[in-house]
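Re: that chain you flagged

S.,

Sorry for the slow reply, it's been a week of failed gels. I finally had a moment to sit down with the sequence you sent. For the record, here it is as I used it:
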Amino acid sequence: VGHAVLAINGAEVNGRVTADGKDVMEFLSNPANYPVSIRFGRHRLSSNEKLMLASMFHSLFAIGSQLSPEVGSSGIEMLETDTFKLHCFQTLTGIKFMVLADPRQAGIDALLRKIYEIYSDFALKNPFYSLEMPIRCELFDQNLKLALEAAEKAGPFGPGS
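Prediction finished late last night. Pasting the C-alpha cells below so you have them in one place:
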C-alpha cells in the first residue's frame, strides 16, 4: 500500500508509461517479456509537497535543538521508528540533507556525506543553480541516482555483513 512501480528493467516509469513510451500493463501482460525486474517505491512528490515537508522538518529540527539538554546541540540527526529511520546531515553552511532508510540499513552517514559531495560538485559549481531553489541539474540527478543505487546494493546490513 502506498507504493508504485518506479522502473521496469531499468526504464523509468511515469504513471502507467515507461520512459520509452510502453504501457506498463501491456508490457507486464506479455509472457515474452519475462523475466522482468521491477523497482517499487513511494509515489513521487511534487516540488510543492517536497518544500512543505522540508519546511516542517526544519521547524522540528529547530525545536529539537532548542529543547535539547545538551548545550549547543546541532538539532535532530536521526529519528527512528519501527519501520524507518530518518537521517539528517547538516552542513557547516546550514544546508540539510535527509535520507529515509530501513532501520537495519548500514552506511547512511557515508551516503549522506556522498550526497553532500555530489551537491558540491554538480549543483554548487553549476552557474545556473540558485541557492535556496530546487536543484534542476541532470548531472546531479545522475550521480545522486548512482550513489543511491550503490547504497541499495550494499543491502540492509551494509557491505561484508
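What I noticed first: The domain at 3-42 is CATH 2.30.42.40 (Pdz3 Domain).

Talk soon,
D.
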